[in-house]
Amino acid sequence: MIVMLFTPIDSYIFDDIVVIINFLIISFGYGYGGSYMLLPIEFQKLDTQNCLFVDVRSPAEFEDSTIYGAVNLALFTDEERKIIGTMYKHDSPADAKQLGVEIVSEKLPILYKEIIRLRKETGKRIVLFCARGGMRSTSLALLLNGLGEKVYYLKDGYKGYRKVVMNGIDELSNEVTYIVLHGRTGVGKTKILDELTDLGMDVLDLEGGANHRGSLLGGVGLGEQPSTKAFESFIYHTLKNRKTDFIFVESESRRIGKLFVPQSVKARMGQGYQILIDADISFRAKHLISEYTDLEPGNIELLDAIDKIRRYMGNEPVEKLQELVKIGDFQKVAETLMVNYYDPMYDHSIEKNAFDETIKVDSFKHVAETLKNWLDRKLESDQNASSED
Q1: Which of 45, 76, 154, 353 has the smallest C-beta neighbourhood within 10 Å, fewest atoms?
Q2: In what order do the strands lie in the sheet with 177-182?
Q3: Is the pTM of this model over 0.85?
Q4: What pLDDT is stored for residue 132 in this prediction?
């Protein structure tokens, strides 16, 4: 018995029109009632680092949210979806289905070649997924397997993955101890995290995942931030793929640009080790400028960002800063912002913490090595104390 693999789940039209794939499957003798059965695979049971997830949804769906590290191999472009959907609603459902069949049939050879290329280039297991029930991906998976390409499809699609992420962040965060780096703006906390990564330490780079530096100038020159779903996927996979239960992270407020750090992560960070990184103002200003190497006099993004602190600094100081931006005196801009805006605000939060260690910056690499040695000593001391008990 052959069953229709697509049901009205992602939209009432797009599942019907890819019926052509079912006919091709029939021609190869495959179907749920035959001798071959392809079963969905659960995300939790996968070795995700050895899998390549292939999102067969439209580019717009993929752009909004997808599995972390996935590639897009869409059955329909956004424009195709729009044209077919409009035709189905306002003209002829039959004509809309016919157009969809024609579009998909033309793409099947390309889809087949792309899957082969991805498998050969990555050497990973190919896992297809779509929106909810895995319907689009089910048919494509059966077709590809019928052609000799062993692929899998994800149970419950992206919706199921999203549920895993939301539950997993809370569970995984409770399993780890965070080593939280504090310090005034410009001390180079992100650079230190990069050096720790090079040393093989586990790092959760929240600002990197959020594509935002987490400050007044945080978004200047970086472009758009990811969606909340993409940010949370980044956090989940970082925690899931860790090597140890000790993770270095930069101190953050709950909000990074337009995104929010999950409450469970933020709370757990407050229970971890607290490290203060210190540096003099000239070092900090120099480093801050180095992060904005593409700045030019009169940079519009920077002028707009500075304009937002009028309520904190007043009109005259802000206008003076904007004049400095226009003539390109970024050293003076950085030092003025630190003395009159960043430091007073950050010092207030620093006073609330009791630090386990304070480290003066001479070089980012040396600070990272110092932190690694500090953690090694801490773990050894804790182990010895436990043995004595």
Answers
A1: 45
A2: 202-204, 246-250, 177-182, 273-278, 357-360
A3: no
A4: 84
Q: Which residues of 183-199 are buried (b: 16+ CB within 10 A; e: fewer)?
A: bbbbbbbbbbbbbbeee
Length of the chain: 389
324-366 pLDDT, tens digit each: 888 888 888 888 888 888 888 788 777 778 899 999 998 999 9
What pLDDT, in 10s, does the model give residues 256-314? 999 999 999 999 999 999 999 999 988 988 888 887 656 666 577 778 888 888 888 88
Residue-wise over 364-388: b if at least 16 C-beta within 10 A, else e?
beebbebbbebbeeeeeeeeeeeee
Reported as a single tens digit per residue, the pLDDT across 218-253 is: 777 778 899 999 999 999 999 999 999 999 999 998
Token pair, residue 279, equals 């540096």
Please tell me the distance from the alpha carbon of residue 226 to that of residue 54, in angstroms, as a whole number: 19
* Helical (H) or strand (E) element with 46: none
d(CA 329, CA 327): 6
Alpha helices in 204-314 (DSSP H): 206-210, 228-240, 263-270, 281-290, 300-307, 310-313
- Taking the C-alpha atoms of residue 244 and residue 383, their distance in angstroms, rounded to an integer, is 15
Cα 107 from Cα 90, distance rounded (Å): 26
Closest CA to 176 of 274, 275, 271, 263: 271
